[in-house]
Amino acid sequence: MTRIESEKNTVAKMVRIYCKYHEHNKHLCDNCHQLLEYAYQRLNYCKYGEKKPTCRKCPIHCYKPDMREKMRAVMRFAGPRMIFFHPIIAIRHLWAERN
Known about the structure:
- By secondary structure, the protein is mostly helical.
- The chain is 69% helix and 0% strand.
- It is built from 4 helices and no strands.
- It has helices at residues 3-22, 30-44, 65-85, 87-98.
- Helix 1 (3-22) crosses helix 3.
- The longest helix has 21 residues, at 65-85.
- 18% of the residues are buried.
C-alpha cells in the first residue's frame, strides 16, 4: 500500500467513526461524504506525493479554512478512538508522525 493510499484509508476510517458515533448515522451523511471526497482530492494532488508527511506536520495547508475546521473536528473526535477500532492503523499513524 502506498503512502497516499494509507492516508486515504486512515482518513476514511476516522470520518466513518466520527459520523457513526458523533452524529449517530449508520452510513456517511452528505456532509461527511463531501468531507471525505475533499480529503481524497487533496491527497490525490498532494505536492509531496509518497514523501508526504502527516497533515499535522505538513508545511503547506492545502485545505480550505472551513474544510480544515471540519477535518480538525473529525480528527479530535475520532483520533483517540482509533486505538480501539483500528489499533494497527492508529499505531502506524502515530509512528509516521514521529518521523
